Amino acid sequence: MKATLTLCLASSNVGKLNEYQRMLADLPIKLVGAAALGLPTPAEEAATFVENALAKARAACTASGLPSLAEDAGLCVPALGMQPGLHSARFAAGSDENRVHHLLERMQDVPDGQRHAFFYCAVVLMRNAQDPMPCLAQGRWLGHILESPRGRGGFGYDPVFCGQGCGQRSAAELSAAEKDRLSHRGRAIRQLRRLMPHVMRQDLA
Question: What pTM did the predictor assign?
């Protein structure tokens, strides 16, 4: 790979930026978040996670002039018709705590055996806004929804999600290294890392 390459991460979510920086720290990449660049937040109007990620990556390339990474991720609960899904960040107004509370309210009558859920993440790397061959990686983390929040780590729905590999803990009770190893985002980023050497040789810089 070439010397340090600056990539825009098309997200203003500090938790996501921290996870990406951690999992890509050994690569010759400088990752800059959308907030630091003053980029606008694009609308998420597509019908799929992949299409939303593509739209966000393209918008970030256009606005920043930099190669860009973007993701769309969400929590899918079969008992709620796959909600919150694409609307995970907008499932309820206000903070992460508000959205967690709303989720638990919606699931208060769902029995233990039907509280299955999974996190899904689609990550896109685009070299420029006209990139005809964007790099796509995906990850999924199976688990279930707890009856009450646990832990202070992570962000989003982590306090009420117990995923495979967590034992009896929530995702918010995992160490950063454990979450990186187990999570949907960690799986997608590891897949992306396997593709990046080839992609970055294609005049990415």
Answer: 0.92
